[in-house]
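Working notes for the structural subgroup meeting. M.R. asked for a predicted model of this chain before we commit to crystallization trials. I am recording the input and output together here so anyone reviewing the notebook later can reproduce the run.

Input as submitted:
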Amino acid sequence: MTQEKPVPNNEILRLVDLFRTGLKDSVYKWFEEANLCTEEELKVFEVVLDRIGHLWEKEEIPLTSVYVSSKIAEELANTRLRPEIEGKSPKGTIVMGTVSEDTHSLGKNIVKRFLSPFFEVHDLGNDVRLEDFIHHAKRTEADIIAVSALMMNSIQQLPHLRDLVEQTEWTQKPKILVGGAPFSINPELCEKVGADDCSGFAFDTVEKAMILLGDSR
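Returned structure, recorded in token form:
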């Protein structure tokens, strides 16, 4: 029987290195040997992803390391963590996609991998019309509409998304979370487009989403 116990910082750092260097088997072995309870495994998972995100923000690791880490995280979530949290309610429902006239998908796909262990995620894909975000958010009773936009002509559409949200009747109005490189370069864009929050980096999207929902679920 496992019990909750603190994980030393040196072990967290070792696990970060295993993730970013693509040593998937060693990552699985680490979790097996650590013998943590479910809640502690989830905490470690979140901390490691956060550490990797900060390394990328400080340009201490390349995008390839981010991608490799996201692949391992997705597999770990599906094969080890997801079965352990099965039966527990997700923290919320997210409808996500890349806005119309924008077909860049790498960032969105990485974000999806990190959101999936904690939220019910509905990925609408690329080149998504604003009306489709609203339709699917209403159908799924989404808590958050997460929109990726990497091009300025795409970003210019986003104020209309806020208008559509305000004009639609909801049981509970969803939050708008926007992301993409332009928002890391100019965070003021977030307020200009009427979003509730923005994320310029894939790794901090989970934290931003939890904050928007009050992290109380």
